[in-house]
Specification:
alpha/beta; 19 helices; 11 strands
């Protein structure tokens, strides 16, 4: 599953729809499309494009077929330029009891055709919870516009240059100015794509999703989305509320957050997740030697930052400066395996030792001068910049300084600017305001560091007909089909298979299969 950290992370209000307070509100947006788009057929084919197509291999093994369709670049000009959207489809295996089509969006934003395999195979190559979904639903995954096998939006950003901004925590003026200069360089590389940039918004992707519904011949579809996919699902319910049936949103974002300031309010949740890791590793002091109490482990981390501030490290040939440390301490998974990897990484930072293989691979990306289109960095930022206008450059530095005392570890990382602050174009239309009564099931972890609890609550309030199931004492991003979340899996299956939402919002405890 892609986390929203996979990238770290003007004009007229055309086709604006205000549905505040409505339930299943009708929309005629797709009805306005020309016949050549509404009447096109998807030619399904083998998902494997060649011998090295890993995603295609997984999809083929899951029994999926792939195809493409054309969508307007600009829905305000539906007769104009079109782009290609790539999709994958796997038919329900129990056709006699088929419930319909389930669209699967794995987050990011990023390629999601292989969301089909998430349901068929589970995230670790097999999971009992989703078997009935694969039997009863046609499963469909869509690579959003500009990602994966869809029409690309590639600005040629060197991987290291992007990570130097996305994972930086600049607390002083000199470091901040370096990130501004780097952001200007990346934004300039996107200037040749100005015709595409304003149309990378989630609102445009939701319209693509509805066009796909038309081409599949469905009057309504159901939906499950993780992370950024929760926002896409919410936007779809707002614009096309009469065309969506059952909706599951895993690790819901605050509906006001997506855009240039996506991570602005995540520092406290990041710190809480780091404290949970510190508790875990303190109980294993004999193995990791980072401290026998939570406070002792966190003091070790603070000492690392103080040391690196005056004496930068070189690990695996990569210079490590203090503004890089918070980004290296982010965690989105509270499993024993993930926490052990983080403990080993912190020990390397403390000792200045040779990095572990996994850490060396991560650090190599910071020094990578090549472009890595498979990561979709420029498309991810284009989506954010198309969502909402950015603040002024100086506002970001002021914001960081204002929160230095209350957010000492992660504040600068969460609040610093992205290339959106110096982007060559503004959004084509306002962001969608989420406020409707469409039923939905919201699931998530109480300690999610990426989608903090306050943001999950904001989505629950915006979707007033929804119910929430929260996994207690969990510090992870994504809970469905994850080990230890059987109560969540059961709630999802009851809803998607039987249409039964919980009577009230509920909190459940971790358990295992």
């Amino acid at each position: 599953m892609r986390s929203i950290r996979s990238g770290r992370y003007l004009a007229a209000a055309a086709l604006t729809v205000s549905l505040a307070g409505c339930g299943s509100a009708p929309s005629d947006e797709s009805a306005a499309l020309p016949d050549r788009l509404r009447d096109q057929s998807i030619a399904w084919h083998d998902c494997r494009s060649g011998p090295d197509d890993v995603v295609g291999d997984r999809l083929a093994a899951a029994g999926a077929r792939c195809g493409e369709f054309q969508a307007p670049l600009d829905y305000a000009d539906p007769a104009g330029q079109t782009i290609t959207i790539a999709v994958a489809h796997r038919a329900a295996t129990d056709s006699g009891r088929r419930l319909g089509t389930l669209l699967v969006q794995t987050g990011g934003p990023g390629p999601s055709r292989d969301g089909v395999t998430m349901i068929v195979d589970g995230p670790e190559g097999g999971h009992p919870a989703a078997a009935a979904l694969a039997e009863r639903y046609d499963l469909v995954g869509m690579d959003p516009r500009f990602f994966g096998a869809s029409t690309p939006l590639e600005c040629g950003w060197p991987t290291g240059s992007y990570l130097g901004i996305a994972q930086a925590a600049p607390t002083n003026r000199a470091d901040f100015d370096r990130t501004v200069d780097a952001a200007r360089e990346l934004a300039a590389r996107c200037a040749p794509n100005q015709a595409l940039l304003p149309h990378a918004s989630t609102r445009a992707i939701a319209r693509d999703m509805d066009l796909l519904r038309v081409l599949l011949g469905e009057s309504t579809v159901s939906y499950i989305g993780w992370s950024w996919g929760t926002y896409l699902g919410a936007v779809y319910t707002q614009i096309f509320g009469d065309r969506i049936d059952r909706v599951v949103l895993d690790s819901a974002l605050d509906p006001r957050a997506p855009g240039p300031d996506l991570t602005r309010d995540t520092a406290a949740a990041d710190a809480a997740a780091l404290a949970d890791w510190a508790r875990w590793t303190s109980a294993r002091d004999a193995e990791f030697g980072l401290g026998a109490t939570e406070d002792a482990v966190l003091r070790t981390v603070d000492n690392i930052i103080r040391t690196v501030t005056t004496h930068p490290l070189s690990l695996g040939g990569v210079p490590i400066t203090a503004d890089m440390i918070p980004g290296l301490l982010l965690t989105v998974d509270d499993s024993d395996t993930s926490y052990a990897e983080l403990s080993q990484q912190v020990r390397v930072l403390r000792d200045g030792a040779d990095p572990t293989p996994g850490m060396a691979q991560k650090l190599a990306l910071y020094a990578d001068t090549a472009t890595s289109p498979e990561f979709g960095f420029s498309a991810t930022v284009a989506n954010q910049c198309a969502e909402r206008p950015a603040r002024g450059v100086e506002d970001y530095f002021t914001d960081i300084q204002r929160h230095r005392d209350t957010e000492p570890m992660f504040g600068a990382l969460a609040r610093h600017l992205t290339p959106c602050a110096v982007w060559p174009v503004g959004p084509a239309e306002p962001a969608t305001e989420i406020a409707n009564r469409h039923p939905a099931l919201l699931i998530g972890a109480a300690g999610d560091p990426v989608a903090p609890a306050a943001g999950q609550k904001a989505m629950r309030q915006a979707l007033s007909g929804s119910r929430s199931t929260t996994l207690a004492d969990a510090f992870r991003h994504g809970v469905y089909l994850m080990d230890g979340a059987r109560c969540v899996d059961s709630a999802v299956e009851r809803y998607l298979l039987d249409g039964a939402l919980p009577a009230n919002d509920e909190i459940c405890q971790r358990d295992r299969y």
